[in-house]
Amino acid sequence: MSSRKARRRIPPRRLPGPLPSRPSPGPDDEPVVVRVGTPPELVASLPAMLGFVPEESVVAMAMHRRGERGRVGGMARVDLPADDGSHDPAETDRLLAAALRDRLRRTGPDELMIVVVSDGVPGVRPPQADLVDALRASFAEVEVPVTGAVWTARVAVDAPWQCYDECACVGTLPDPTGMQAAAEVAGAGRITYGSRDEVEAALAPEAAASGRRRRGLIDDAYRAALTDRELSGIGAARRDLDAVRRAAAEVGNGGVLAEEEIARLAVALGDPRVRDIALGFAAGHDDAVAPDHARALWRVLMRAVPAPEVAEPATLVAFASLDDGGGATLTVALERAMGADPLHRLSRLLGSIVTAGIQPSEVREMVVGAATEATARLTA
After folding, report:
1. Alpha carbon of residue 196 to chain centroid
2. Which helix (H) or strand (E) is 58 found in, with range?
3. Which of 9, 95, 222, 257 stands the most exposed, by the fewest C-beta atoms within 10 Å?
């Protein structure tokens, strides 16, 4: 039997099951809360909220009002297109504004905040003013007002900033690393990268992932898994789950996975029962696995496992990043998962969830529900 035929006999992937009720999260489960006040504080907090320092970007934040307080209900960041003369600037601005509107309107915002990061100097109006006008007009079509728009040349201490509003307020940014948002994120053990390129580099495949040895070990592991599952039934899934738990502890405590372990884990996560339970690790659902250890393992496997199997750990990285605000980590991980396996149902589901603007707390409920259901099946 060829390894390709063996892989087709693995049970098909499926979506997580129905959601059970769940108690309110305890203090240790609370997500990081970022509080900002003035426009420069908002801009300086972007690296903590996005997970990296944006450059040549427009960031739109959907705001939800609760009395006098507001909270960010969704964020979208896109690169500013290069002005190479090949496109009509007005049409480019219109299309960019429409794309941001269509993405964020699903979150049901009460108002919108815009931050533009683009090289330049303050003036009568800041750089990219036409784009901001296009954004105001586009969101006005869905009756969402843009209540604040700020430009900065770069997100760094003493960088100039200016409002697009009639007040034309100007100033310089505070130190982003000294913001409360940065302290909250650092206190939670989360990384803020210097750029999106650094995020991609941190999650890029290692050289061995595409090597013949790694591929051969995974194919051998599939054949062994088929035999084990045929002979042992649910006992094989329990052993796979134990292997994932042990690996999380090993990586979380600074250990390095052997080649054979990587292959075994790639195959173990291909079982939807094991994968669904593993989804809950980063959410603190499994007392045997520390959430930070799970996040570390998923990142290791995302770099170590070849396509198409990498779709599983990459999707686990994406889900685990939701409590950090998603940002570039979520985007890079989802792109890897979908590129490795275009028919991968769980990554497509998460992509739909992100597009729909569903809150991370609601996604966490779904994840815990899937993990609870899968755990019940394995322990029955």
Report:
1. 12
2. strand 57-66
3. 9
CA 284 to chain centre: 17
What is the average pLDDT across 58-67? 81
215-229: buried (b, 16+ CB within 10 Å) or exposed (e) per residue? bebbbbbbeebbebb
Q: Cα–Cα distance between 163 and 175 in angstroms, integer? A: 19
Give the DSSP H or E segment for 110.
Answer: none
Q: What is the mean pLDDT of residues 113-132?
A: 89
Integer Cα distance of 36 and 75 in angstroms: 15
Residue range of the domain that includes 251:
3-14+200-379
Residue 332 DSSP label: H
User: Is there a single domain that holds both residue 135 and residue 169?
Assistant: yes
Pair (245, 169) in one structural domain: no
Q: How many domains does the chain have?
A: 2
* 368 shares a domain with 251: yes
Does the pLDDT of residue 37 top 80, yes or no?
A: no
Same domain membership, residue 118 and residue 204: no
User: Is 90 in a helix, a strand, or coil?
Assistant: helix
Beta bridge partners of 112: 62, 146
Distance separating alpha carbons of residues 249 and 49, to the nearest angstrom: 28
- Tens of pLDDT, residues 310-368: 999 999 999 888 765 566 788 889 999 999 999 998 888 888 777 666 667 777 788 88
pTM: 0.63
Amino acid at 30: E
189 within a domain of the structure (yes/no) = no
Average pLDDT, whole number, for the chain? 80
Residue that is last in its domain, among 130, 148, 178: 178
Partners of residue 161 on adjacent β-strands:
152, 171
Q: Note whether 248 and 329 are same-domain residues.
A: yes
- Tokens linked to 172: 């310089």
Structure tokens at 90: 């007005």
Which residue from 339, 330, 278, 279 is spatially nearest to 308, judged by alpha carbons? 339
Q: What is the CATH number of the domain that holds 51?
A: 3.40.140
The closest of 368, 331, 72 to 193, measured between CA atoms, is 331
